[in-house]
Amino acid sequence: MSEAPTTPDGRYLMVRGRLWRKANPALPAERRAALVHDLMAARRAVSTALRAGDAAAERAARAQVDAAKQALGERGPVWWDDGAPDFNRHMAANTPYAAWAEAQA
How far is residue 68 from each of residues 20, 39, 64, 82, measured CA to CA in Å? Predict the structure, then answer.
């Protein structure tokens, strides 16, 4: 499997034409690794809760996923400080990255 293309400014990955915000590159490697570990554990907890049909556990696990993604910088306030808008979860064709995205095809 090839790696998803990254926008020239390093802010997003593009998967099936949609932009997904990357983690904050300023995070120290150890902190990032710990947060990714937490994220993966939370995702496993979501799966376990879904299989068990436990709605309360699922809500709690999804909250843990969100907390880890926010700490990584993939959700919540943007990690860049130049005032550029956030296009997380937008179709690349509908953003200023449209020409770049077209060139990736």
Answer: 15, 5, 6, 24
pTM of the model: 0.89
Largest CA distance in the chain: 45
68 vs 76: CA distance, rounded Å: 11
CB crowding 58-97: b at 16 or more within 10 Å, else e: beebeebbebbbebbbbbeebbbeeeeebbbebebeeeeb
pLDDT tens-digit map of 30-61: 999 999 999 999 999 999 999 999 999 999 99
